[in-house]
Specification:
Number of domains: 2
Order of helices and strands: HEHHEEHHHH
Structural class: mainly alpha
Strand order of the largest sheet: 1-3-2
Number of strands: 3
Oligomer: single chain
Shape: rod-shaped
Length: 219
């Protein structure tokens, strides 16, 4: 039960609602929920026993309508309501303050939730961009190789600077750099199919394995 209805004050407010108009129990529950903007939802176990006590005290009565009990305030109930007018006014002011406070709590919680959702969306977007970048890098690498044949083809002739000379480790590095540059150029000019990409990946794996065997790399 909401705190404003402590110490028997719900009983007083039920009299007030029935003074406005005769109502059946479910209608009283709906009206209370509406007055609290849906933030307070009284149960049948809260409302019906209190209506029964008010009826036992002669403050309300009921009649059957469509198979339901419709409760209405009695003259004795109106007299009590009039006698407690100041208390009722204070209760209604507290209800307004309570609804405002509950609504603000909800707004704060919603704002916090929105911030959390935004943070999660930002993180998800960053992760997506990271994955897309990695995929682009993989695609670029595979495309670099799409213009080359198989490893069984004879290697390209050495550049003029190397002809008639014994290649050095630095010369090998230059050949690798030249290969990469050429591969990048090819990658920008063609759009390989999935089958071509798979074949290029195999070519790279085979080429690396052959280089490792030639250089005696056992790693």
């Amino acid at each position: 039960m909401t705190p404003v209805f402590g110490h028997g004050r719900l009983r007083l407010y039920l009299l007030k609602l029935l003074a406005e108009s005769p109502r059946h129990g479910y209608e009283v529950m709906q009206l209370l929920e509406e007055r609290f903007l849906g933030l307070y939802q009284p149960s049948a176990g809260t409302i019906y026993p209190r209506l029964a006590r008010l009826e036992a005290e002669g403050l309300v009565s009921h009649r059957r309508q469509g198979g339901r009990k419709v409760y209405e305030i009695t003259p004795a109930g109106r007299a009590e309501l009039e006698a407690r007018r100041a208390e009722l006014a204070a209760l209604e002011a507290e209800i307004r303050d309570s609804v405002s406070g509950l609504a603000e709590d909800v707004r704060v919680e919603v704002r916090g939730t929105v911030r959390d959702v935004r943070a999660e969306l930002k993180q998800a977007a960053q992760e997506m961009r990271r994955q897309q970048k990695q995929q682009r890098q993989r695609n670029q690498w595979e495309q670099w190789m799409s213009g080359f044949g198989t490893v069984s083809e004879p290697p390209a002739a050495p550049p003029p600077a190397m002809q008639g000379q014994t290649p050095t480790a630095r010369d090998l590095e230059r050949r690798i750099d030249s290969f990469s540059d050429h591969a990048r150029d090819v990658a920008h000019r063609v759009r390989p199919t999935d089958a071509q990409l798979a074949e290029c990946a195999t070519v790279l794996d085979d080429a690396l394995e052959r280089i490792r065997r030639i250089l005696g790399d056992q790693g």
